[in-house]
C-alpha cells in the first residue's frame, strides 16, 4: 500500500468494487485506486445477504434505465469479467421475471401508470387481466386480483457474491489495490477531503474519497464532517420447502415461476428446489450495525398466511433456512444517492440503495467513475439521484419500492 492514491474507496462490496472496476477499465483514467474493506469475508455485507434480484418495473424512467443497463451488464458479465488464467465467472442469471399483483383500485392505477413509464423506456413488461393471469400461472388464486404486471425478459435473480467477486477480481487485475482495514477518520481542509486514517494507524492521502460503505454510509460521511440520511434497516429472508411445489406449472417462460409480489407486500420466488420469501416488516426502525438476528415471527405471522391464501401450493410449507441482512436505507426517499457533495466536491456518494444495490451497482459504478474521470456523467445521466436533492430535502419519488 502506498501513502497516496488518486481515489480511495471506502467499502469493497458490490458498489465499491463496481466503482473500482469501471475506473480501472477506462483508458482515460490514469490514476491509482485503493479500496478499503473492513471485512474481506463479506459475511455481513448487504451484498452477501440480499435476495439478489433485478427488475425494470419501476415508476421513474431513470430507475428503469438503471436496471436495463444492469440486466444487459449481467448478461455479458462472464466475458467482461474474465481474468486471464481464471475460470470465466457465471452469475447463473435466471430470467424468471417479476410479477406484481394489484388487488385494490389504487394498486391497479399504480401498475397502469408505472407500465406507461416502463414501456416508454422499452422495458419488456405486460399487463394482464385476471383471466390472463390465471392462464399463465394456474396455481394462483386470483379472485381478488384486478390487474397483474409481468416482466417477460430482463428481470430475474442471479449470484450476489458472484457479481461482487467478479467486479473485485477484475478490478484487481486492472490495477486496483485492496486492503483489509477500516477507515476511522477522514482528513479535510476546507472544501476538500485530503486523507483517510485507517484503524491500523496508516494515513493515506486521497485525491477523491468515494463513500461506498453501505449501511454504514452515515458513519463514513460524518468522519468528513458531512451527512447522508442512510441507516441500517433489517430485512429477514426465509427459504422454505413445499410439500407440492408449484414450480413448473406456469404456461409461460418454460414453466418457471417469477418473483411474485403479492398485494400484501409479501414476495417469493423459486430458489433451486426451494422458495425464497420475505415481507416488509410491520415496524421498521433503524437497527444497530451489528444486529443480524432474524425476525423469526414474520414467517408465521405475515408470510405464510399470505402465501397460503394466494396458492394451494403454498399451504403446506416449512422453513429450511433464514437470515437477516441490512438495507442501506435512504430515509428521505428510499432511493440511491450517486454524486458529489456540492460543497466538498472530491467526496463522492454511492449510497442509500435501499435494497436495490445489486441491480443498480453496474450503473452506479459506471456513473461514479465518469464523475471522477470526466467531471460529469457521460452515459446515463444520474443527476436526478445526486446529493443536491438530499441537501434541499427534496425527495426523488419512486412508487415501486418493495
Number of structural units classed as domains: 2
Count of separate DSSP helical elements: 10
Helix content: 25-40%
The assembly state of the depicted protein chains is: single chain
Q: List segments where confidence is low: pLDDT < 50 over at least 5 consecutive residues.
A: none
Biggest sheet layout: 8 strands, mixed
Domain FAD dependent oxidoreductase: 6-371
Protein name: FAD-binding oxidoreductase
EC number: 1.-.-.-
Keywords: Membrane, Oxidoreductase, Transmembrane, Transmembrane helix
Explain what the structure shows.
The structure is a single chain. The protein has two domains: 4-69 and 160-231 and 332-392, FAD/NAD(P)-binding domain (3-Layer(bba) Sandwich), CATH 3.50.50.60; 95-153 and 235-326, D-Amino Acid Oxidase, Chain A, domain 2, CATH 3.30.9. The strands form three sheets. Strands 1, 2, 8, 9, 10, 11, 17 and 18 form an eight-stranded mixed beta sheet that branches. An eight-stranded mixed beta sheet has the order 5-6-4-13-14-15-12-16, with helices on both faces. It has ten helices and 18 strands. Helix 1 runs parallel beside helix 6 (160-173), helix 1 (14-25) runs parallel beside helix 9 (357-374) and helix 2 (61-75) packs across helix 9 (357-374). The protein starts with a strand and ends in a 10-residue tail after the last helix. The chain has helices at residues 14-25, 61-75, 77-80, 105-120, 130-136, 160-173, 217-223, 297-310, 357-374, 388-392, and strands at residues 4-10, 33-37, 53-54, 98-102, 125-128, 147-151, 156-157, 177-180, 183-189, 192-198, 203-211, 230-242, 259-261, 267-271, 274-278, 317-330, 337-340, 347-351. It is α/β, with parallel strands linked by helices.
Amino acid at each position: 500500500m502506498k501513502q497516496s492514491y488518486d481515489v480511495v474507496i471506502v467499502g469493497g462490496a458490490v458498489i465499491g468494487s463496481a466503482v473500482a472496476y469501471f475506473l480501472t477499465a477506462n483508458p482515460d483514467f490514469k490514476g491509482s485506486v485503493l479500496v478499503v474493506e473492513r471485512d474481506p469475508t463479506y459475511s455481513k455485507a448487504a451484498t452477501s445477504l440480499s435476495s439478489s434480484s433485478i427488475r425494470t418495473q419501476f415508476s421513474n424512467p431513470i430507475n428503469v434505465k438503471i436496471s436495463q443497463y444492469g440486466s444487459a451488464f449481467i448478461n455479458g458479465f462472464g466475458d467482461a469479467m474474465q481474468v486471464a488464467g481464471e475460470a470465466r465467472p457465471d452469475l447463473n442469471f435466471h430470467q424468471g421475471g417479476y410479477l406484481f399483483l394489484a388487488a385494490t383500485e389504487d394498486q391497479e392505477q399504480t401498475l397502469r401508470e408505472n407500465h406507461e413509464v416502463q414501456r416508454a423506456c422499452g422495458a419488456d413488461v405486460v399487463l394482464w387481466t385476471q383471466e390472463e393471469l390465471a392462464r399463465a400461472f394456474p396455481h394462483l388464486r386470483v379472485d381478488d386480483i384486478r390487474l397483474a404486471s409481468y416482466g417477460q425478459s430482463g428481470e430475474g435473480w442471479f449470484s450476489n457474491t458472484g457479481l461482487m467477486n467478479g467486479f473485485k477480481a477484475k478490478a484487481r487485475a486492472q490495477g486496483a489495490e485492496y486492503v483489509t482495514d477500516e477507515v476511522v477518520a477522514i482528513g479535510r481542509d476546507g472544501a476538500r477531503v485530503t486523507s483517510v486514517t485507517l484503524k491500523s494507524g496508516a494515513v493515506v492521502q486521497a485525491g477523491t474519497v468515494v463513500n461506498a460503505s453501505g449501511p454504514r454510509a452515515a458513519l463514513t460521511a460524518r468522519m468528513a464532517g458531512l451527512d447522508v440520511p442512510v441507516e441500517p434497516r433489517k430485512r429477514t429472508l426465509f427459504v422454505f420447502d413445499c410439500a407440492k411445489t408449484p414450480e413448473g406449472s406456469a404456461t409461460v417462460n418454460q414453466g418457471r415461476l417469477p418473483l411474485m409480489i403479492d398485494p400484501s407486500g409479501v414476495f417469493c420466488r423459486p430458489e433451486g428446489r426451494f422458495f425464497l420469501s420475505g415481507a416488509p416488516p410491520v415496524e421498521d426502525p433503524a437497527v444497530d450495525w451489528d444486529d443480524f438476528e432474524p425476525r423469526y415471527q414474520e414467517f408465521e405471522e405475515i408470510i405464510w398466511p399470505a402465501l397460503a391464501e394466494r396458492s394451494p401450493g403454498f399451504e403446506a410449507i416449512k422453513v429450511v433456512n433464514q437470515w437477516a441482512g441490512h438495507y442501506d436505507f435512504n430515509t428521505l426517499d428510499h432511493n440511491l444517492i450517486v454524486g458529489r457533495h456540492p460543497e466538498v466536491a472530491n467526496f463522492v456518494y454511492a449510497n442509500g440503495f435501499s435494497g436495490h444495490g445489486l441491480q443498480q451497482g453496474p450503473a452506479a459504478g459506471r456513473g461514479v467513475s465518469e464523475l471522477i474521470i470526466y467531471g460529469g456523467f457521460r452515459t446515463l445521466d444520474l443527476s436526478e439521484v445526486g446529493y443536491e436533492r438530499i441537501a434541499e430535502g427534496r425527495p426523488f419519488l419512486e412508487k415501486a419500492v418493495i
